[in-house]
Design goal:
By secondary structure, this protein is mostly helical. The chain has 16 helices and four strands. The protein is globular. It starts with a helix and ends with a helix.
């Protein structure tokens, strides 16, 4: 009897402890509005950091134009690479936030037909059935015809780039503004295929006294105009996430819709956009033209920081460019309150993919560039990229379970033929 009594007492105590723990977990679960505020605060900090690094890039561009040299060109390139790190962490906000998605094409549209902007190698070709402006070369031509109308391009200004040339004639490849237009101007074409090396534009392309490439003054006008636009676009997006800003207000209108927005960004960037269009497509085709930061050979960083951004919004933790941290109640906390094991699984998979991306990044910085990794016949390089893709796909499956655990309607994450129907890629 004594044994039975103590055994029952222990069982009862265990049950009470479990009940208290469950109640404690429920009480500890953050309010959805608190989670949304953390998400918005991280967005604000990320865009503020993007603006600050773009301002440093603009200063480096001004120095290059004022005094072209190998040193000032290298400094401008370094500033561009630095500016990509915080911006790429914000791309998780594009999917689900209509305000961000509508704006994103101005700053990060890709790929681009660089012949719209400047001179290109003869191997680029002279025309395209899909783009009448394929080689219009605005830097070399003060008079243009767009949509059948004459355009005065006597001076290259921000307005000319944004209002007339960007996505001109409704062709998405006519990218006249943003990070990648600036990248092309700073590096020039990467003509190495899957061989070693990035673009090699000389500093004399910006030197009006010793000009190579022709039209150096106009090239400087284009570069400074594109930088001015990037700054104004980032100022706009910072404002959208400040208190009372349009993006923050839209997010907070409905709590469940807001949580769905976070998950939509995570799943769509993770699966269709990053694993599919930015990575698997290039790997299937073994095509260096399918790498994201193709002129600078910076694609490894671009992909790595996309994944860091996905983890940031799940864990509610963002390390700013100055080393300070923005953190608060998170989606992770919400999932943990309903399914602790699933929360641990999601975090473990996010970390595993960060690790796979870090391995790819380390290889790019010590062995071979990303465009070489995806080259045909490079089994080892291909495997490193595929491991990162596999991680992205695997974490997406767990993110889908997170949607279900929170009682939300299924989310149609962005897909990609390269993942869902690979044979279509070759048709």
């Amino acid at each position: 009897m004594i044994v039975t009594y103590h055994s029952g007492k222990i069982a009862l105590a265990g049950a009470l402890a479990a009940g208290l723990a469950a109640g404690s977990a429920a009480q500890a679960a953050p309010g959805k509005s608190d989670v949304l505020n953390t998400y918005a605060d991280i967005a604000l900090a990320g865009y503020q950091d993007s603006l600050a690094t773009a301002q440093a890039l603009d200063a480096a561009i001004q120095a290059l134009v004022a005094s072209p040299s190998e040193a000032t060109l290298l400094a401008a390139r370094a500033a561009w690479v630095a500016a990509r790190a915080p911006y790429q962490q914000t791309e998780v906000y594009r999917f689900g936030n209509a305000i961000v998605d509508d704006w994103e094409g101005r700053v990060n549209a890709w790929p681009l037909d660089e012949g719209l902007i400047d001179y290109v190698d003869a191997g680029y070709g002279l025309d395209s059935d899909e783009n009448a402006l394929y080689t219009v070369n605005v830097i070399a031509n003060a008079s243009l015809t767009v949509n059948g109308k004459a355009v005065d391009a006597g001076k290259i200004t921000p307005v000319l780039l944004s209002d007339t040339l960007h996505e001109a004639e409704e062709v998405e490849a006519n990218v006249a503004t943003g990070y990648h237009a600036i990248e092309f101007l700073l590096w020039g074409q990467d003509l190495n295929g899957t061989g070693a090396g990035a673009g090699t534009r000389p500093h004399t392309d910006f030197d009006t006294a010793n000009c190579t490439g022709g039209n150096c003054e106009r090239r400087n006008q284009y570069l400074t105009s594109a930088s001015t636009l990037l700054l104004s676009d980032l100022v706009e997006m910072v404002g959208n996430w400040e208190d009372g800003g349009a993006a923050r207000k839209a997010l907070m209108l409905n709590e469940d819709a807001g949580i769905t927005t976070i998950l939509t960004g995570m799943g769509s960037l993770s699966y269709g956009e990053l694993a599919g269009e930015r990575m698997k497509l290039g790997l299937l085709l073994h095509d260096p033209e399918e790498e994201h930061d193709c002129f600078a050979d910076n694609t490894h960083n671009s992909h790595y920081f996309n994944q860091i951004g996905i983890r940031n919004v799940y864990t509610g933790h963002y390390r700013r460019a100055d080393g300070s941290v923005v953190s608060g109640p998170s989606l992770s906390d919400l999932v943990a309150a309903t399914d602790g094991a699933l929360d641990q699984e999601i975090k473990a998979k996010l970390n595993a993919t960060v690790g796979a991306m870090a391995a790819m990044k380390a290889r790019a910085e010590s062995v071979e560039a990303y465009d070489q990794m995806i080259g045909e016949g490079n089994a080892e390089g291909n495997a490193v990229v595929q491991a990162a893709i596999d991680g992205l796909i695997d974490q997406t499956r767990s993110i889908e379970r997170g949607v279900s655990s929170l009682g939300l309607a299924a989310i149609p994450f962005e897909g990609s033929d390269s993942l869902d129907n690979p044979s279509a890629v070759f048709e």
